[in-house]
Amino acid sequence: WCQDKVDSLYNYLEGENTKAFILLKGGKIVLEKYFGTFTQDSAWYWASAGKTLTAFTVGIAQQEGHLNLSDTTSDYIGTGWSIAPSLKEEKITIRHQLSMSSGLDELAAGDPNCTLPSCLPYLADAGTRWAYHTGVYTLLDSVIEVATGMTLNAYINSKIKTQTGMTGSFYMSGYNNIFVSKPRSMARFGLLLLNKGNWNGNQILTD
């Protein structure tokens, strides 16, 4: 480690309005720094990094037989969740939601976060166009809840948080469902991903 560079790193992070910084090596914390009034026990939102937690949770739901990535979204949240023609909507699968390739127009309503059917018109066939579209991705939360029969937070608590020691929850903010946690919980999730779904010998996600 370049120990003499740590202070300059912290100065840079503080200048960029960083709230928390954790550096892990071999599963252990080697640097941990909080800035301003933010502390180890403060919580912050993951923003779009929460999509990775959603995707991981979808993977567990598939692993447990609750859903399949090739299933159509309408199988779980019903028809008419968009204003695409019914034959086009029926082609949109969970995999398309995960891969941002639903074909729905993310700019039509001027708000790519909107989850209302009126905000989700057809633009191209599913799988033929990529666009970053938070609204369609957020609807995966409803897919998980219908498929598992549990709330999103309850399912994540049962399948991920209790095994890893993570804390935090999803909260609605406008159309968005945003995950909020302490910094160390985000670090724990990072380790879970780094270890390909394995936590202390417990294979939480096999694929």
Describe this structure in words.
It is a single chain. By secondary structure, the chain is α+β, with helices and mostly antiparallel strands. 37% of the residues lie in helices and 14% in strands. The chain has nine helices and seven strands. The chain has a three-stranded antiparallel beta sheet with strand order 3-5-4. Helix 2 (50-63) packs parallel to helix 7.
Describe the structure using short key phrases.
alpha+beta; 14% strand; 207 residues; two-stranded antiparallel ribbon
> Percent range for helical residues?
25-40%
Biggest sheet, spatial arrangement of strands:
3-5-4
Catalogue the unreliable spans: none
Distinct helical segment count:
9
What is the helix/strand order?
A: HEEEHHHHHHHEEHEE
* Mean pLDDT rating: 97
Structural class by helix and strand composition: alpha+beta
- The rounded Rg comes to 19 Å
The fraction of residues assigned to DSSP E strands is: 5-15%
What is the overall shape?
A: globular
Number of E-state strands: 7
End-to-end Cα distance, whole Å, is: 34 Å
Please summarize what this structure is.
By secondary structure, the chain is of the alpha+beta class. The protein has helices at residues 6-15, 50-63, 74-77, 86-89, 94-98, 134-138, 140-148, 152-164, 183-194; strands spanning 20-25, 28-34, 44-45, 169-173, 176-181, 198-199, 202-203. The model has no long low-confidence stretch (mean pLDDT 97).
